[in-house]
């Protein structure tokens, strides 16, 4: 089980690359919810991102699980609650990378294999092997888990480009938590194609839009609805002249996009095979796509 709010980019794919199954969750989850997910998923180890969060879990969570080992990504192991880790091996990020290097060398340069004229290889991971367990938010009750295979995750990487033809140099702006299913799928797509990713929050969204000028934005419908309502309130509170100009420009923009769509013969495509949608908007001189956790709605700028 991997608990983190920001440190998933390296560790999350690393766990899956070993053939292990990971269960990612954010640090804002309650201790009881984390315990339920750990137990239900039959996890055998724990990865946490900081000593502060580990110590928060020391009594209510870690003392109740039977972990074979614990991995601390950032910070000093000496800062951990000593009672909680008395009988559990703890590794930090450097320990893990060094163990990986040693195991790789031992396999590749095994004298026994060399004498037999063989080359060491890692056990292959099949496309139908389970890669991760993703749990729902739990807003409707106890979080429910879904098993996703490596083929499931690769489907997004292999097919999303047909809808989002992003290229190296493009920028994605993301505001979803790292354990979110849609965020994870998009991250894998981004890293595979050498695209830049910028993380933001609802609080800093406005400033980051202006500063980074993203080509694509990743979020869920509720965020866009909140953003739209905020813009409408600002327009309504503006002086009559500014309000008239703003509404006129919005109307012209909508008419232009509709006319362009007809002219270029692009049609809206609805699909039930993916779990996201895109909606076209324009910031300054660069066109952007908004991604939502629904069906696909493709509109070319």
TrEMBL record:
**Spans traversing the lipid bilayer:** none
One Pfam family of this protein, by short name? Answer: AMP-binding
Domain AMP-dependent synthetase/ligase: start-end pairs: 14-235
Q: What molecular functions are annotated in GO for this chain? A: long-chain fatty acid [acyl-carrier-protein] ligase activity
**What GO terms fall under cellular component here?**
chloroplast
> Span of the secretion signal?
none
> Could you mention a single GO BP entry for this protein?
fatty acid elongation
Q: Which Gene3D superfamilies does UniProt cross-reference here?
A: N-terminal domain of ligase-like (3.40.50.12780)
Protein name according to UniProt = AMP-dependent synthetase/ligase domain-containing protein
Organism of origin? Aegilops tauschii subsp. strangulata (Goatgrass)
